[in-house]
Amino acid sequence: MEITETRISLVARPNSRLRAYASVTFDNQFVVRDMRIIEGKKGLFVAMPSKKMQRTCPRCGFKNPITHKFCGSCGAALNPIRDQRLSPSQQHRDLAHPIKTEFREYIQKKVLEEYEKVKKAAESGEKKEEK
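Predicted structure:
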C-alpha cells in the first residue's frame, strides 16, 4: 500500500501538545482522517483516529464517558468499573490502526515529512506578512 496524498491542518492551541491533524489517502482509494500529530516527550508522533469509550445509563440510555460515576442526563449512579484510574489510552479506542510496525513507521514518516513542509510554509508566510 502506498500513501498517495497527505493533507495536514495545523492547530494553534496554547498549552496543547496537539500540533496538527492529518488525512492520509492510500492508493488513491482509501482515506483515513483525523490522525493527530502530537508533541510527545521524545518528539513528534502520529496518533491514529480514535473514539472516546462510553457506557450507557441503565435508567435513561444516555451515553456517558467511561470515567463518569453519574449519568450526565438523569444523574443516576452508573455501575462502577473495576479500576477508576483509567489511563488516557484505556479511555479511547482506535478506529483504524496499522497491524505491522513497519507500516506504522512508514505512515508516521510520510505524515511527519508533510507536516514539516506545511509548518515551514506557514512560518515563511507569517514572516513575509510581518515585513
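Summary: The chain has a mean pLDDT of 88.
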